[in-house]
Amino acid sequence: MNDSTVEPTPDDTLFGGSFTCGLIAARLRHVVKQRLDIARSLLALIQLYSEDSVGRYDYPMFEFSDLERKLSNIINNYRLFDDQLSLKLAKRGRGLADKVAHIGRFEKADPSPEFNVFLDKILEAGLLFLSPYSAQVFLARSLALHEQYAVLMNLCTLSASSIPDELRPVMTFYSAIAYSGIGKPLKAMTNFNLAAKAVTDQNKALLTALSPVGKTQEINLGDYYVMVRCLSHISEKYNGVYQA
């Protein structure tokens, strides 16, 4: 789970600063709420058509139950996004927010103003960052790397009822890290052990979370518990020597 962080050079830094970060946050929250409202309105409309089809009319071109299921999933996903955007980072998490505002320059052929293109790209990246379906579970990974353990614990709690079954071992693993960080080593070890079964089963999502970014590796139980032991220093800060 170790990631090497490359600091952006002046040439790579297109836009940054507290104003840009604040604008990104406000626009991201607006987009999430807007899409959540649209999805809710569409679901209400589909439900009306569904009721109407039972009574007077038939709409053979629509699979209402499938549409309702998909829209319900979208609503749950964006509700989770909205909850995540309410999570509070400590001041030391400011560096995490600043890093989002650094991306390379754009294609000169794009006629749009560079700042507009920048915001669009950051919004796309932000939604991917928030999504529990992202290959890396980016938000949980970043919170763990930046030692935002209380926020990570809140994220794991928020995600408990929303994530698909194949991602549950990943959040169990991050719950273990969060418990370590807030000084609860016994709960941490319980969750590390629960996640271990997914290592045996070669759960792809967990292997991706345990590997360097972009390099999913095969990991056995021995490797996993070596990693767990390396993470034990988190709890040692609070409870002395951690017995793994």
Structural commentary:
Helix 1 packs across helix 4 (114-130), helix 6 packs antiparallel against helix 7 (168-181) and helix 7 (168-181) packs antiparallel against helix 8. The protein has helices spanning 18-55, 64-85, 94-100, 114-130, 138-145, 149-159, 168-181, 185-200, 204-210, 221-231, 233-239. 65% of the residues lie in helices and 0% in strands. The chain is built from eleven helices and no strands. The chain is mostly helical and 244 residues long. Pfam families: NPP-6_helical.
**Main sheet, how many strands, which sense, barrel?**
none
Beta-strand level of the residues, as a percent range?
Answer: under 5%
Q: What's the count of strands?
A: 0
Number of helical segments with 4 or more residues? 11
Quaternary structure type: single chain
Give the integer mean of the pLDDT values: 74
Give me the secondary-structure category: mainly alpha
Note the overall shape.
Answer: globular
Order of helices and strands: HHHHHHHHHHH
- The helical percent reads 55-70%
Distance linking N and C termini: 18 Å
Q: Tell me the Rg in angstroms.
A: 21 Å
Catalogue the unreliable spans: 8-13, 92-98, 100-105, 238-244
Features:
244 residues, 65% helix, disordered C terminus, mainly alpha
Strand and helix map with partners:
Blueprint (H helix, E strand, L loop, with lengths): L17 H38 L8 H22 L8 H7 L13 H17 L7 H8 L3 H11 L8 H14 L3 H16 L3 H7 L10 H11 L1 H7 L5
Helix pairs in contact: 1-2, 1-4, 6-7, 7-8, 8-10
Pfam families: NPP-6_helical
